[in-house]
Design brief:
The protein is mainly beta. It is built from six helices and 17 strands. Strands 1, 4, 5, 10, 11, 12, 13 and 14 form an eight-stranded antiparallel sheet that branches. A hairpin with a 5-residue loop joins strand 7 and strand 8.
Amino acid sequence: MYKYLSSFSALMATVLVCALTASAQDLTVRDTPQDSAGFTAYQKEWAKKYPDYFIISTGSVRVTLQEVKEEPDMSYVRLQEEPPKDLNSVLVSVEKIVNIASKLWEIVKDGKPVANIDTKYATAYPDGVTSATQLAQWTKPKTYVYGFYAANLYGSTMIDCKYKVSYTYSGSYKGVGKFLTGVAVIPTSITVGWGYRFDMSAQVPDSTIANVGTDKSPVAAMQLKLTWKMSTVLKEVTGTSVYYVQGDGYYEEIASPWKKDQKEPENVKAAAPLITFFNQQKGTVGDVFARNSGLGNETCAISDSRPIVPIPTPIPVPLPPVPHPAVPPAEKPCSPCPEPPPSEIHTDHQHGNCKNGHEHYFEYHQEPAPGCKCRLVKKTKCL
């Protein structure tokens, strides 16, 4: 893609300014507490021999926007709301917007989606509304699909998580306002390498619920804060992404510590008029700038003699590399259990249904590695 954009960027650099929203937050890295639960003695032993396996390369951590789509319906979430029995008795204030659903919830725990994750979501309703059914004119839900990857110092992908941010918007109360419901984060696939733990949670602070419209024509807005934690027996890495959503459908990632390797579809579409203009030009980069800036080459000091190379549309966007989760180290084989005690034969008394005597014999049952614990089991058979 870069060979197509090289001359384009040289021509338009003095015309376009790409503004970044909100400064990206840093990843937080700290040593894992010694008393941290969830890691086995075998993992601790391996960490001493191969520490690089158990340390996340912060430069490898990235998130990519993979798809933007409409959902056919709201089946991605199960609304936990009930409308009041007497709608006429409800006092509704459309200019005051509140979240009546989840404010803080877990999404992924120990590398697995939490139970009933489809019942966890946030809303931005007029104060007094207790159900999405009290609002009308909802649009089809919009979904942003992300891929999140992190590798260890060996370069092996240890965290591979796909998740989607979905929301339904444009709901109105008696024809007034644009509100939000079903603002949710749904994990769709998670792969976590051996010796690693991955947790994710969401939060919608009440302080971020706002009316960005007017009192007579309110537009709901909220910030969805996504917090990640990747941990091993040696290190913990945490970070936060913040997504901004409005009741008119506007969506933006306003803070993230991750590398963004892929152009968002909206950005590519927004560049379409400039690409069309560029492809209609003839000559060199310097010639085109001089013709369209209203200034001569001497004044602009542009002496770029590269020929114009048309930009194909749509612009080819490279796909992210396919991660390959690392194979965990082979478990150390268990030492064999000791020989069991000798059998005991009894003919002087009856045991159960054994009328002619019985034999007690012993077997060891061994736990798999790395536990390897031997448990002695007593069994009986009739003679």
